[in-house]
Amino acid sequence: MRRRLSRLVIVLALGCGSLVSGCSEPPQKEIDQAQAAIDAAKAAGAEAFAADEYSAAVTALEKSRAAVDQRDYREALNYAIDARQRATESAKQAGIAKAHTRAAAERLVTECSARVSQLDTDIKVAEGTRVPARDLRSARTTLADAQTALQETRKSMDAGNYGDVVTGLTEVRRKLDGAVAAVDALRQRPPRKRR
């Protein structure tokens, strides 16, 4: 164990000049690796799905480059390694968050599709029970808007914009629920007496 530790100290000393004075050359390889890890994290959606960790990686890389400008290569190396680790972690976090958001979006698509079918059926039943057409106007508008939103959602899902789908369909579902409740109330309302 002691022998391995001695070798590690020697390797570090040779690679960075001396342990006291710091590295003698910029850690370009580590900076390049950090940049590659940041680019991969960005491609994985870390800017949106793991913003804090991704931002910390970018900041650490900027500090690494600033340390190179100050010729503090030891500090530059530390920041470059930190940037690479944070970028890798942000890519992992983004993958997990993206999967959760996709599942939530798919669930909302299914729920909204079911509510659209229910509202369509409820409107037809209400028409059969002689609910006046003017009383069903709002529900019909909600139905048409929801159908349009679901069509647009398919494009967003294909593009991987799951957060936009969740945001948009949450509101659509709320409106559909309100319209279903309103049509049910109209159907249960006692008929008006003729004079």
Q: Would you mind describing this structure in some detail?
A:
- With 195 residues, this protein is an all-alpha fold.
- It folds into 2 domains: 2-96, no CATH class; 99-188, Up-down Bundle (Butyryl-CoA Dehydrogenase, subunit A, domain 3).
- Helix content is 81%, strand content 0%.
- It contains 7 helices and no strands.
- It has helices at residues 2-15, 28-43, 46-49, 51-69, 73-128, 137-158, 162-188.
Rg, nearest Å = 30 Å
Please estimate the helix content. over 70%
Distance between the termini: 102 Å
Coarse structural class: mainly alpha
Mean pLDDT metric? 86
Largest sheet data: none
Strand segment count: 0
- Stretches where pLDDT falls below 50 for ≥5 residues? 1-15, 17-21
Shape: rod-shaped
Total helical elements: 7
Assembly state of the chains shown: single chain
Strand content: under 5%
Any idea how many domains? 2
The H/E string reads HHHHHHH
Provide key terms for this protein.
195 residues; mainly alpha; Butyryl-CoA Dehydrogenase, subunit A, domain 3; disordered N terminus
What is the fold's blueprint, element by element?
Layout: H1 2-15, H2 28-43, H3 46-49, H4 51-69, H5 73-128, H6 137-158, H7 162-188
Helix pairs in contact: 2-4, 2-5, 4-5, 5-6, 5-7, 6-7
Provide a brief overview of the structure.
The chain is mostly helical and 195 residues long. Helices cover 81% and strands 0% of the residues. The chain folds into two domains: 2-96, no CATH class; 99-188, Butyryl-CoA Dehydrogenase, subunit A, domain 3 (Up-down Bundle), CATH 1.20.140.
